Amino acid sequence: MGSVVSGKLISYTFKSNTLLSRKRAILLLLLTHLISPYAISGVLDTPSSGVTSKSPRFPSVAQAFKVKWTYDGNFVRGEFTIAPGCYLYQDRFQLKLLPQTQSETITNLGKLDLPLGEMLEDPFLGGMHTIYRDKVFIAAPIIAIPPNSQPPSQIEIEAIWQGCAEAGLCYPPVHKTFQLSASKP
After folding, report:
1. pLDDT tens digits, residue range 147-168?
2. What is the pLDDT of residues 55-65, one digit of tens each?
3. What whole-number distance in Å separates Cα of residue 82 and Cα of residue 18?
4. Hey, where are the domains in the chain?
5. Class of domain 61-181
């Protein structure tokens, strides 16, 4: 009887090892298949995964939105160059004169002058928004008191803007300060 029990144990162990070896072989085969480039492109390119091997590469915020500022003593002007496939929101522009540059002759910047833009039903913020593509020029007047006083030759402004890439990325708002010197007429 001892040998029978022993035989069953050996047989059982042998069957378990065979079954375990088969499972390992199948698992290894599946993993090898899933890791292959062909399998990865097929698995990841499914619409439900949200990730594809052809995912777009997004420009940095500095590459997507380049800005050049000018100051002539009467106006602060910004020229934004917007990368292809990107856009800026009209209602996300803010411009303010920093307190350390306010003097007795300047109280603030006037209302920001923004051009008409394109209406877009926005997938990121929801609802309709006015946006700019390609290039946009903005301006704000310098409000001086007394009215005929000389503006300072240098000012410091804080500018805020935000935009998105159409391929599926909304950039966080950009907050930057700029020191501007009055250009000579």
Report:
1. 677 777 888 999 999 999 999 8
2. 678 999 999 99
3. 64
4. 2-49, 61-181
5. mainly beta
